[in-house]
Design a protein that fits this description.
- This protein is of the alpha/beta class and 256 residues long.
- The protein has helices at 15-24, 31-40, 59-68, 81-90, 117-129, 142-150, 161-165, 170-188, 204-208, 220-229, 231-255, and strands at residues 9-13, 45-49, 73-77, 94-97, 134-138, 155-159, 192-196, 213-218.
- It has a single domain (9-255), classed as Aldolase class I (TIM Barrel, Alpha-Beta Barrel).
- It has eleven helices and eight strands.
- The chain has an eight-stranded parallel β-barrel with strand order 1-2-3-4-5-6-7-8, surrounded by eight helices.
- The radius of gyration is 17 Å and the shape is globular.
């Protein structure tokens, strides 16, 4: 019988709040306020990406969020030495290593850990030496899972973008199967299972129901909905969507 003991915790990515602020170069909306509202809505973590070009989250945000977040602060960053230094100095609850290209609108895929060589290994070692928890943002590939496990990281976050973009039917089913197989490899390697990118109120259920899914990181869909219903309610409604997936999975297991 498949195991399923709890619903995944929800990490809310607030980068897009900072994107709106940066569009005018002013001080509002403040992502620090957004983090507080997300937590009031039930978020169990706050995720931010400090990019090299500081296109949305800036150093000031990281500093204040480290002081004010009441749940868990998950910092996404590239494996660039200068950014790793900032990550070590800020000491978030979790570092998620991600790929980064200046010209991309958003993260386009997972970090290629298998071919990352010394560059990735050195970043992980620096973070581990500092006593920080490390997660890898990777494509749903068994090879990438195994490469991540070999570096001794705590968790992997499976990139769900291809699943989210696939049309309903056989294409989406195939992408979901890839996520399920990579999830099984993650559990077999003794790593904690996370997922994120492109998840929304409609497609989150299938990913939330994967066995032993511990964390889902979702941003764009929640911030988009918040324009119409407010951030606290948007977070609460996403948590309800995740809860429904958990209830559905529990009912399925009961019938087996």
């Amino acid at each position: 019988m498949p195991s399923f003991t709890r619903m995944p915790r929800l990490g809310v990515n607030i980068d897009h709040v900072a994107t709106i602020r940066q569009a005018r170069g002013g001080r509002e909306p403040d992502p620090v306020w957004a983090a507080a509202m997300a937590e009031l809505g039930g978020a169990e973590g706050i995720t931010i990406h400090l990019r090299e070009d500081r296109r949305h989250i800036v150093d000031r945000d990281l500093r204040l969020l480290r002081e004010t977040v009441q749940t868990r602060l998950n910092l996404e960053c590239a494996v660039e030495p200068a950014i790793i230094t900032i990550a070590i100095e800020s000491r978030p609850d979790q570092i998620t290593l991600v790929p980064e290209r200046r010209e991309e609108l958003t993260t386009e895929g997972g970090l290629d850990v298998a071919n990352g060589g010394a560059r990735v290994a050195d970043a992980v070692k620096r973070l581990h030496d500092a006593g920080l928890e490390v997660s890898m943002f990777i494509d749903p590939s068994i090879r990438q899972v195994e490469a991540s496990a070999a570096l001794g990281v705590h968790a992997v976050e499976l990139h769900t973008g291809q699943f989210a973009d696939a049309p309903f039917g056989k294409a989406r089913d195939a992408e979901l199967q890839a996520l399920i197989e990579a999830s099984a490899a993650t559990r077999a390697a003794g790593l904690t299972l996370h997922a994120g990118h492109g998840l929304n109120y409609v497609n989150v259920a299938d990913v939330a129901a994967i066995d032993d899914m511990a964390e889902l990181n979702i941003g764009h869909s929640i911030v988009s909905r918040a324009i119409f219903v407010g951030l606290e309610r948007a977070v609460r409604e996403m948590k309800e969507a995740i809860d429904r997936a958990a209830d559905r999975k529990a009912a399925t297991n009961k019938r087996l």
